[in-house]
Each structure stands twice: as structure tokens, then as C-alpha cells.
Design goal:
Largest sheet: 5 strands, mixed
Strand order of the largest sheet: 17-18-19-20-24
Strand content: over 45%
Distance between the termini: 32 Å
Radius of gyration: 20 Å
Shape: globular
Number of helices: 1
Length: 351
Amino acid sequence: MQLKNNMATREKVHSLRFNQDQDCFICCMDSGVRIYNVEPLAEKAHLRESLFGSVGHGEMLHRTNLLALVGGGAVPKYADNTVLIYDDCTSKLVLEFTFSTPVLAVRFRKDRLVVVCRQQIHVFSFPHSPRRLFTCETRDNPLGLCEVSPLPSADRHILCFPAHKLGAAQLVDLLTTESTVSQAPLTVQAHQSELACLSVNSEGTLLATASHKGTLIRVWDTARRVLLAELRRGSDPATVYCINFSGDSEFLCCSSDKGTIHIFALKDTRLNRRSTFSRMGFLGGYMESQWALANFTVPPECACVCAFGANSTVYAICVDGTFHKYVFKADGCCNRESFDVYLDLVTDEEF
């Protein structure tokens, strides 16, 4: 997910993203790249500006030594149309992929590398003898929206991105798609306006979508392409920054520029709140939507990402450098597990 907010410090964060297991996250900045472990919170690596320049996008491959990086920001050392694969064990660049247009996002699986440009998505075999498998043409995609089910052992192997039709998401089966095979596109008409955020669960069976309006999160069955739940983030329009499923797909969390992290139940939807007027059908769909089981606040209008940990824990990391950890209960109670921590993202002197 791309974040464009300035920090209150001298630093600027260009992107924040959790790894596929949601137990680490990568922070791309003008001063390079920092990688943090979530539990316990600790910095694991710092790739300085002298090595890569400023970095616009980054992706981890679970907890392995491989990183995908794309130049960007104020002082890039590498072009923004090039994806660099960096081996942190050997401290060397091991692969390089160059494209005709800027790269807006990169997604990793243990057997695939997905590169997102504004109107194309390129899928490569990975990591052995990498080659381009196929390219998908997309609707204009300035946010670089694209998600992939991360587990090779998953029930479904889904790649999802904006389809050509307004508000629609396209689904591609990574196991059956080859460069020599042509398939009819499978789409979900998710919203009536432009897509703003996507998320796929670890098994590839569920897709969550939000539009530019940002009031609703819709959850879809990827096999049947049917709506399973409509979750109401709020009544006012908002920019949705991040959506994530819990590892067991029983819960979903989302963040927005309203400064609230919302947590919804997916398995037992009776836990979600509903309007007291929900039985009055003449009031329309607004009253039929499910409202968050629990929520907590972060600095408003500060872009952030959120994810689940063990034992009903939810984390939020904001571009102002704050790290938030809360625990929620089935009754909707949400308690701060620890005091907010400030991550040292300020440019420091090199020794």
C-alpha cells in the first residue's frame, strides 16, 4: 500500500507493508529501508541511503532473506521502473527486472513474483530461473492495487487487481494461467466507483474490497464470486488505507484517514454491531450493514497499516512513526496492550 503522508520529523515514509505472515513489516523511506519484527517489536535490518538511495516500494518474502525494492523519493539510486531483488544474507543484489513504465507495487509468493505498473501487471516464475509467465492489462491503476494469496499450499491461488470495468475486481487463477493459455476474465462487480483497497486472505478463498467512497468493506467468495458480507466502516466518506484478514480468516481489520481501526467478525457475524433500526426495511441498506465489533483510534489523517497478531491482537503502524497494539474481545471491548511506541524513523548519522 502506498502512503504519501509526511512525517512530523525530517524523515519521509513512502510505503509501509506487513509481510505475508503479518509478523514483520518493511518501511521504505528517503533514508533507505528499515525492517521490524512485530512481536516483540524490534528493528531487524536497516539498509541505508548510501546503499540504495531513497526507496519508494518494498516487499518482504515471509521471513526469508529476500527483499523486492523499487527506487523512489527524493534521492533514488535506482530508477523507479526497476525491481531489485536483494539478498540480505549476502548483502548483494541477485536479480533485476526493468519495465517500460514506473513500478507502483510488488507482490511476492514463494513461487511467483508479481510486478504492478499503472496499466499492466506482470507475473514471473520465482525464484529459480525466473521468467515472465504472463502479463495482464488493467484499468488505469494509479494506486498500484494488486493482491495475491500468499501460500503455495492454499485452497486457491488467486491474483486480484482492478478490472477494466469501473468498480470491478478481476480474479486470476495462478495455477491454471500460462502464457499460451487464454481464459475468459473472472470479475467481481464490487462497487459502483473506483476501487481504493483490496485484500485476499491467506487461503485465497476470500476477497475484501473498498471503493473511493470508503464507507463500506465488502467481502466476497472468490470461487462463487458472491457477496458474503457488507461491513460498514462509517457513514462519512473516507480514504481506506489498508484491509487485512486474520490468519484464520475469522476477523478483518481496516484503517482509514478518520483515525480509527475497525475490527469485524467474519465467521460469527452475530458479534458485529447492527443498527437498532435494522429491521425497518424502508430505511434501506444503510441500516442492513454490519458495523464493527470493536475499534480503536490512531492519529487522524495519518496514513497507517493494520494487521492481526496472536490471541486477538491487532497492530497499527502509522507514518508518523507510532506503533499501536490493542487486544479485542468478543464483547467489543478493545484494550491497549502497551503504550504507543515511537519507531526511530528519523534520518540518523552514519558511523
